[in-house]
Design a protein that fits this description.
By secondary structure, the chain is α+β, with helices and mostly antiparallel strands. It contains 4 helices and 34 strands. It has a 4-stranded antiparallel β-sheet with strand order 1-32-31-30, with no helix packed on it. A hairpin with a 4-residue loop joins strand 28 and strand 29. The longest helix has 41 residues. The termini are far apart.
């Protein structure tokens, strides 16, 4: 017997895994003892681990894992119970249901239905508001006003030779003694002495140029006051101003005409020379808003016939590449007089003859766009960036005809009021004569027909809604139209005077957006290029376009 030697252990079989030997999560595999975990004795013999100890450890881990899962389940149930207690006293719509339950589905359907109803209500309110705004706008556009209220009144000195044109949003008054800027309240903002014998004026935007026809002086103004004064080398025939204050003048010498452009400060931009024998006499000129394009009308006598020549110039890059004189196009008319040409927009030109109204497009080079035939003689013409129009004499008064720039007639309007001024604003046409005024809307309806107590010198619209500046002989009023006439006045005119009470004999409707200048023409050209022709002589009245 070998005493002291340990008995060898049979280690051929590995220890079986214990099912209870799991991690606390319960999802990992049980640990298995392997050969590396079997220790060796001092004698080098293999030793089996304590099997009872391993089983005990496995059971403890299994118990802890089971207790953790049970604890989490209990906590979740407790949280659900607490939420139910918290929401027990609230309305059903706010109850939070467990996902997938019948109550949850019903609550979600109710919430979706309520959201849809709210959206329908909001959209309906918006549609009603838009429709109400459209209706109010339309109603105001066709509404006829019977009276007015005076917002502001200012005393003014009567000057028989005063003329007025639209200047910015207000009024420019010019006389041989000076120029004044009148604001929307009728107050004079500033006055500048010019000492111009026969003033002619042109205004566009916030700039105006006043020249001495037959003289040599030109003065340029902004709404802030006078900018510059320039003495021309030759007699002034015509003047036209652009949006930025640059202006063009037609100068006349014995055998030569000049078309010169200057900046608002009086610096020369370009000079063109034309021969009277070859080109004829300048009748009218017009300049584009940006000052880069020029359109002219010249009258030439050739033997026993007369010829009108319309010529277009471009002072931009296209004109530089065309030829030395920058001419980019021209048109000739036999036995037809064209006394008025005008840029309606920066790229659209209207030429008014005694037989037609011609419309040209000129982005860079001119091209014919429309021709409107005039049946009969036109007493007056007016225009804007959206339309052109004429007024003709008829048996019992006058008829106003308005056309779009495609040549289609928009409306006709019959009236029997004697007038001497005409002005078109953004959405209406204003006629005044004596103490009487007539305002026709852009759709051809009567907006205001009234007889004042004093003679009207001038009347234009302002930026205010249905507000106007009316100049009388000794004061200027800013008025606002009213539905009813509450003012006490002698509405009946004196018998035998020109202030007979005349009413409209008819009206037709159309749709348009008049916006811009107006021109009045009678039989002989005078020095006035404004909307203030107060005589029955031939004249051309041009007012700068307004936008409410």
């Amino acid at each position: 017997m070998n005493i002291g030697k340990k008995k060898k252990l049979n280690v051929r079989d590995k220890a079986r895994p214990d099912r209870g030997h799991m991690e606390r999560s319960g999802s990992e595999r049980m640990e298995r003892p392997d050969r590396d975990r079997i220790g060796k004795t001092d004698g080098g013999h293999m030793e089996r681990p304590d099997r009872g100890r391993a089983e005990r450890i496995g059971r403890e881990q299994s118990e802890r894992s089971g207790r953790g899962l049970q604890d989490r389940t209990d906590r979740e149930r407790a949280e659900i119970a607490d939420r139910k207690k918290q929401t027990a006293g609230k309305k059903k719509n706010n109850v939070v249901h467990i996902k997938g339950s019948k109550e949850a589905g019903e609550a979600n359907r109710r919430r979706r239905r309520n959201r849809i109803i709210k959206r329908i209500i909001i959209v309906s309110v918006l549609i009603i508001a838009v429709m109400a705004a459209v209706f109010i706008t339309y109603y105001n556009s066709i509404r006829e006003y019977k009276g007015y209220s005076v917002i502001h009144s200012s005393k003014t000195n009567y000057e028989v030779n005063a003329s007025y044109i639209k200047f910015g949003e207000n009024l420019l008054k010019y006389t041989p003694e000076g120029v004044s800027y009148i604001n929307s309240n009728g107050d004079t903002e500033w006055t500048a002495g010019t000492n111009i014998k026969v003033p002619i004026a042109s205004a566009r935007g916030n700039y105006a140029a006043v020249g001495d026809k037959g003289g040599n002086k030109v003065a340029v103004f902004s709404t802030e006051g006078q900018i510059s004064e320039k003495t021309m080398p030759y007699k002034i025939c015509d003047i036209e101003v652009a949006n930025q204050g640059a202006y063009v003048v037609v100068l006349e010498s014995d055998k030569t005409n000049y078309i010169n452009m200057y900046t608002s400060n009086g610096d020369i931009v370009y000079e063109m020379q034309t021969s009277i024998d070859k080109s004829g006499y300048p009748v009218d000129i017009t300049i584009s808003n940006d000052g880069k394009k020029l359109f002219t009308s010249y009258f030439l006598v050739e033997g026993l016939s007369t010829t009108i020549s319309l010529t277009a110039y471009n002072f931009g890059e296209v004109g530089q590449n065309s030829n030395a004189d920058r001419m980019v196009g021209g048109y000739r008319f036999n036995d037809e007089l064209i006394p008025k040409v005008e840029f309606l927009t920066n790229d659209t030109i209207a030429a008014f003859s005694d037989k037609h109204i011609y419309v040209y497009k000129m982005k860079e080079i001119p091209s014919p766009y429309a021709a409107i035939e005039i049946d009969g003689e036109a007493k007056s013409i007016f225009y804007s960036k959206e339309f052109v129009g004429i007024i003709q004499k008829k048996d019992n008064g006058y008829v106003m005809k308005t056309y779009d720039l495609n040549g289609r007639q928009r409306f006709t309007y019959d009236f029997n009021m004697e007038y001497d001024n005409i002005f078109a604003s953004e959405d209406e046409i204003i006629l005044t004569g004596g103490r009487e005024c007539l305002i026709v809307t852009k759709s051809g309806r009567t907006r205001f027909h009234y007889i004042f107590d004093q003679q009207i010198r001038n009347m234009i619209s302002t930026s205010g809604y249905h507000q106007y500046i009316v100049s009388f002989e000794d004061h200027t009023d800013t008025i606002k139209l009213k539905a009813k006439d509450s003012r006490k006045k002698s509405q009946e005119p004196v018998q035998g005077t020109e202030d007979k009470d005349k009413k409209d004999t008819g009206k037709t409707s159309a749709t348009e957006k008049p916006d811009g200048k107006t021109t009045e023409k009678t039989t002989e050209k005078t020095t006035d290029k404004s909307a203030d022709n107060t005589t029955e002589k031939t004249s051309e009245d041009t007012t700068e376009k307004t936008e409410e």
